[in-house]
Specification:
five-stranded parallel beta sheet, 6 helices, two-stranded antiparallel sheet, binds flavin mononucleotide, Rossmann fold, alpha/beta, single chain, about 210 residues
Length: about 210
């Protein structure tokens, strides 16, 4: 079982998503034999944004790409290979301005590519995800509470967006573990971390 951990918090010290992910992986590894884990840290080392050349290369058939086009897509190819390698995706994605961190968006722009992670049939105008046979687990802390049923739930473009995007590339089995707070209310923060930890430990044994 191959797990790709992708972290997008800009923090290393004090990051809730990173700390809970580390705890999850430890229990997950103990619960499964033959595990292989890789880590992609887009919070600390963000991928480059797509450029005009990158875009041109993306829509040029592989065998017709120039050397500069191949070079422009090289990092994207590495990220896609890594994504396709994994059976399990553990995503540490804090809410930044009601959405995913911009570094994580840059990552998505690099991996959601036609004929690599999705295909398009112009005759039927339909899309098909190509990154199949995977499960995704999203750990998503926030300073407020955006869980469905709260006053702010309509402002959540973080895990709601990610769910749609992962489905688009063929990943249907998605578990979201939110870690909400009530804006710096430490007691609530600690209680929500404990709740998330319990949920993650449940998931770890048969995920
Ligand atoms: C640039 C930035 C934007 C943020 N925007 C929001 C936001 O829109 N809503 C929210 O509830 N929290 C927001 N936060 C708070 C983080 O979601 C929260 O601190 C979370 O715990 C960060 O994840 P981490 O602990 O893994 O670093 C923001 C934090 C940063 C750094």
């Amino acid at each position: 079982m191959k797990l790709l951990e992708i972290q997008s918090s800009v923090r290393q010290e004090g990051s809730i998503s990173r700390a809970l992910s580390a705890e999850f992986i430890q229990v997950w590894q103990m619960s499964h034999s033959n595990t292989d884990c890789k880590m992609r840290d887009v919070g600390i080392n963000p991928p480059a944004h797509p450029t005009a050349l990158w875009t041109q290369a993306n829509y040029t058939p592989q065998e017709m790409r120039s050397l500069s086009m191949i070079a422009a897509l090289a990092d994207s190819e590495t990220l896609i290979e890594e994504l396709l390698w994994a059976d399990r995706l553990l995503l540490g994605v804090p809410m930044y301005n009601f959405s995913v961190p911009s570094t994580f968006k840059a990552y998505l722009d690099n991996v959601v590519r036609i004929n690599r992670t999705f295909s398009f049939d112009p005759t039927t105008y339909t899309f098909k995800g190509l990154a199949t046979s995977k499960k995704a687990l999203i750990i998503t802390p926030s300073a407020g509470n955006f869980v469905v049923g709260t006053d702010l739930d309509h402002m959540n473009f973080c895990d709601t967006y990610l769910r749609s995007l992962l489905k688009f590339i063929g990943i249907d089995d998605i578990t979201v573990v939110p870690v909400p707070d009530q804006f710096m209310a430490d007691e609530i923060r600690q209680a929500e971390i404990a709740k998330a930890r319990t949920r993650l430990m449940e998931v770890a044994t048969d995920w």
